[in-house]
User: Which sequence fits this backbone?
């Protein structure tokens, strides 16, 4: 690893500047009143939001926006690290060192003596095995499902939980059985709807969503990505409806459902 540069001078300079800016923003006497009163819990939603905005820039293929959004996400990491440093827990250097050490540890085929001749799929298996060994060394995280973050988007977390369970054999053997389970859960959802119990309705709807996520996993489809794509398609087609009505001097509220359905079908026929 001696031939690897440990830092880029420009990147290091800008990183130091950003850390200094964060320290000034948090200064009780000279800083920003808003930044000073924040804590981990209050900043966490912004951190999640910035990660989604990074994903959005990637999906749009907008590199200028991606650069800006990565900066916003980096600032979130610096913000959390600064608050931790103030409380005496750790600082940004500890964060950077920790992730660097982890990447070296989890890539023994790159930084160690293991064979690098692996397919991406084989490397994924090896990565998960290393992670499992790391979890086994933590007394509080010995269970199969331990360590799957509760703050993940629900569909993403569902797939991660299902993948963990599948590694120890708790999984449907084929897609057909998952589809059968969807039929079963759909019937139970209808029963819950008819029962008038809102709690049961929520429970059964959740069960159906969980099995749908499992179907995506069996089909090799990321349910979170698939739903994002469906959201984007819905947005394109509905905006086409708005544009068509606007050309007539109308808004969706002025149109009938049948009219909007016809415009939807027209947008669909145009490939939107």
Assistant:
């Amino acid at each position: 690893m001696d031939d690897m540069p440990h830092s880029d001078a420009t990147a290091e300079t800008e990183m130091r500047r950003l850390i200094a800016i964060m320290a000034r923003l948090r200064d009780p006497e000279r800083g920003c009143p808003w930044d000073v009163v924040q804590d981990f819990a209050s900043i966490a939603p912004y951190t999640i939001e910035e990660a989604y905005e990074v994903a959005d820039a990637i999906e749009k293929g907008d590199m200028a926006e991606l650069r800006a959004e990565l900066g916003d996400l980096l600032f979130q990491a610096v913000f959390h690290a600064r608050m931790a440093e103030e409380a005496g827990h750790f600082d940004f250097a500890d964060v950077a060192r920790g992730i660097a050490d982890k990447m070296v540890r989890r890539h023994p085929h790159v930084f160690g003596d293991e064979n690098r001749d692996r397919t991406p799929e084989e490397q994924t298996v090896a990565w998960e095995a290393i992670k499992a060994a790391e979890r086994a060394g933590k007394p509080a995280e010995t269970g199969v499902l331990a360590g799957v973050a509760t703050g993940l988007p629900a569909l993403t977390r569902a797939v991660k939980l299902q993948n963990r369970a599948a590694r120890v054999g708790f999984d449907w053997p084929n897609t057909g059985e998952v589809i059968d389970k969807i039929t079963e859960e759909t019937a139970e959802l209808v029963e819950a709807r008819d029962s008038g119990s809102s709690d049961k309705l929520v429970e059964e709807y959740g069960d159906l969503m969980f099995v749908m996520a499992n179907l995506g996993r069996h089909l090799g489809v990321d349910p979170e990505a698939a739903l994002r794509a469906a959201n984007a398609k819905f947005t394109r087609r509905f905006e086409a409806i708005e544009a068509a009505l606007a050309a007539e001097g109308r808004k969706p509220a002025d149109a009938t459902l049948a009219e909007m359905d016809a415009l939807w079908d027209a947008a669909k026929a145009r490939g939107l």
About this structure: The mean pLDDT is 91. The domain at 143-221 is CATH 1.10.287.1080 (Helix Hairpins). DSSP finds twelve helices and no strands in the chain.
